[in-house]
């Protein structure tokens, strides 16, 4: 975890942000399950927080298999899942996206390429929730 000690605390509903982080961490762990990074590095999940001009940005990155563009384009869609039937509802990331963008007026993005892992970043404004 990489969190600067002087990071300003964004006004937010802590339980909702915890739910977002739980969903991101669970998805990263599932992506890494059984995957061996091609560079021989151990499977890794990194959580990072940074102070940006528009708020506090929190990223969850993994060095897993990554996503092709067609999956990346739909990853926040409700009920979209790449998991086998019965192993996922396809709601975790759509709920996380709603919590950040609607409830907290923040932003949410994903960067990923096949074989290069994934980074999900959400930003919480320092101005407060609406």
Describe the 3D structure.
- The chain is an alpha+beta fold and 130 residues long.
- The protein has three helices and four strands; from the N terminus they run αββααββ.
- The protein has a four-stranded antiparallel β-sheet with strand order 1-2-4-3.
- The mean pLDDT is 90.
List keywords for this structure.
130 residues, alpha+beta, 4-stranded antiparallel beta sheet, 27% helix, globular
Give the rounded overall mean pLDDT: 90
* Discrete helix count: 3
Helix and strand content put the structural class at: alpha+beta
Strand arrangement in the largest pleated sheet: 1-2-4-3
The description of the largest β-sheet is: 4 strands, antiparallel
Identify low-pLDDT runs: none
For the record, give the distance between the C-alpha atoms at the N and C termini, rounded to a whole number. Answer: 29 Å
Round the Cα radius of gyration to an integer and report it. 15 Å
Helix content: 25-40%
How would you describe the shape?
globular
Topology order in helix (H) and strand (E) letters? HEEHHEE
By DSSP, the count of extended strands is: 4
Tell me what portion of residues adopts beta-strand conformation: 15-25%
């Amino acid at each position: 975890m990489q969190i600067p000690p002087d990071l300003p605390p964004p006004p937010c509903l802590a339980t909702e942000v915890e739910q977002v982080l739980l969903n991101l961490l669970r998805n990263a762990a599932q992506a890494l399950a059984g995957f061996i990074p091609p560079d021989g590095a151990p499977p890794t999940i990194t959580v990072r927080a940074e102070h940006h001009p528009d708020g506090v940005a929190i990223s969850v990155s993994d060095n897993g298999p990554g996503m092709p563009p067609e999956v990346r384009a739909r990853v926040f869609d409700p009920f979209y899942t790449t998991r086998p039937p019965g192993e996922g509802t396809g709601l975790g990331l759509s709920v996380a996206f709603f919590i950040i963008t609607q409830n907290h007026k923040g932003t949410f993005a994903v960067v990923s390429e096949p074989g290069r892992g994934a980074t999900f970043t959400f930003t919480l404004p320092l101005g407060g929730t609406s």
